[in-house]
Amino acid sequence: MKRSRARWLYIAPPIFFFWVFGQMDKLGISVIITNHKFLQDLGLLGETAKIGFLMTGFLVFYGFANIAWGFIVDRIGPRKTAIIGTIIWGFTMILGGLSSSYGLFMVSRMILGIGEAVLFPVCNKLISNWFPPKEFGRAQSSWIIGDYLGPAIGIPIIIFAISLGGWEASFYLLAAFSLIINLPLFLFLTRDDPKQHYAVNAAELQYIQEGQKTKQSSNITFGELLRNYRYWMIWLVMLVDSVLFYGISFWLPTYLEKARHFSAALMSSWTSSAWLLALITVLLVGYIADKTRKPSLIGTVIFVIGAIALIIATSTGNSSLAAVMMDIGLAAVGGVLEISQLLLVDYSSKETAGKAAGLMGFTNIVGGFTTAFMGYLVEVSGGNFTTAIIFLVFNAVIGAIALFTLVPGERKDALNQSENFEANSEA
């Protein structure tokens, strides 16, 4: 019997769009803060550090809620969790568009953080339930490319919406995307487990189940996971990657406009190209990681490339070269995110995947404070971004060291198990 491909046709698309529109909601603010009318309406003109706290407020609640959703998703399942989260963030985007003060807008961002905190636990749980380890790299790519495609296409869409109906219109449009597209996808396409899905035939179910039996940590408990130093190295990698992700993504449009004096149109083009390059990097890294089975080594190299790119960006007088280097820096962040999520699912189990991802998502709190801290560094430097970018370089070096500790004996057991699984499948 030929295997059905329900895991790719019914699970991968919803989690892809989950991140596409989730990232539009989360990171669209990086473009909206360049809008003079928005800053004027909320009393934020010249308040760089206060602007940075818009992302901090979101991510503090996002980080703590990640832990809670991690336990919830393991209890009620990823499908129900995704539906609840999508409804929350859809309506908070409407609240954001209705906001007339900084305080009310901050409240909307905080509640949005609670809703969007379902992203990591839901996607890692679905992938752990639906895919064999040999497909983890490509499966993780299915949502991580949405993570980067969302801002790539979202930034021009948001700018267009603002030009037609003001900054408020962009929030109403983003709410519609979540409630009209994301919600039905999870309602009608997904199920928590392949055994429950109407489109999974016996051959695909056997393929998934046999592949998951080879997983070296299939019976690991949450307590055992927390005692595994490898998990905490991945946690550290995720922490510094969050610093880099939010530091670059939030301030990149402002950096290009204020420090490199790009026009709004040119800023939009370079920012979108950064997200597209990150998307390509994610796809490439996922493929290479599945083929080589050496994700920690790959991630180490990517971190080093990102650090070098950021150093060049701060030292060059050529604005176009600086933009290219910042794009490469964001692409490196995407590649490392792919690696960290692949390792997370590989080291956890089906029973602990939600909680493990939730605890990992807590690292976003540090990323949130990064936006405010970088805003402070820029403010005290008189609008100069050099110190803030060097701060990001320091974090990339820490991440490279953390991943390098996992390189010795890189996943030999997982490689042997994958080869045995392939041999059994052929037999």
UniProtKB/TrEMBL annotation:
<feature type="transmembrane region" description="Helical">
    <location>
        <begin position="51"/>
        <end position="72"/>
    </location>
</feature>
<feature type="transmembrane region" description="Helical">
    <location>
        <begin position="169"/>
        <end position="189"/>
    </location>
</feature>
<feature type="domain" description="Major facilitator superfamily (MFS) profile">
    <location>
        <begin position="11"/>
        <end position="411"/>
    </location>
</feature>
<dbReference type="InterPro" id="IPR011701">
    <property type="entry name" value="MFS"/>
</dbReference>
<feature type="transmembrane region" description="Helical">
    <location>
        <begin position="321"/>
        <end position="345"/>
    </location>
</feature>
<dbReference type="InterPro" id="IPR000849">
    <property type="entry name" value="Sugar_P_transporter"/>
</dbReference>
<dbReference type="InterPro" id="IPR050382">
    <property type="entry name" value="MFS_Na/Anion_cotransporter"/>
</dbReference>
<keyword id="KW-1003">Cell membrane</keyword>
<protein>
    <submittedName>
        <fullName>MFS transporter</fullName>
    </submittedName>
</protein>
<feature type="transmembrane region" description="Helical">
    <location>
        <begin position="84"/>
        <end position="105"/>
    </location>
</feature>
<keyword id="KW-1133">Transmembrane helix</keyword>
<feature type="transmembrane region" description="Helical">
    <location>
        <begin position="384"/>
        <end position="407"/>
    </location>
</feature>
<feature type="transmembrane region" description="Helical">
    <location>
        <begin position="296"/>
        <end position="315"/>
    </location>
</feature>
<dbReference type="InterPro" id="IPR020846">
    <property type="entry name" value="MFS_dom"/>
</dbReference>
<dbReference type="Pfam" id="PF07690">
    <property type="entry name" value="MFS_1"/>
</dbReference>
<dbReference type="InterPro" id="IPR036259">
    <property type="entry name" value="MFS_trans_sf"/>
</dbReference>
<keyword id="KW-0813">Transport</keyword>
<keyword id="KW-0472">Membrane</keyword>
<feature type="transmembrane region" description="Helical">
    <location>
        <begin position="357"/>
        <end position="378"/>
    </location>
</feature>
<feature type="transmembrane region" description="Helical">
    <location>
        <begin position="143"/>
        <end position="163"/>
    </location>
</feature>
<feature type="transmembrane region" description="Helical">
    <location>
        <begin position="232"/>
        <end position="252"/>
    </location>
</feature>
<feature type="transmembrane region" description="Helical">
    <location>
        <begin position="272"/>
        <end position="289"/>
    </location>
</feature>
<keyword id="KW-0812">Transmembrane</keyword>
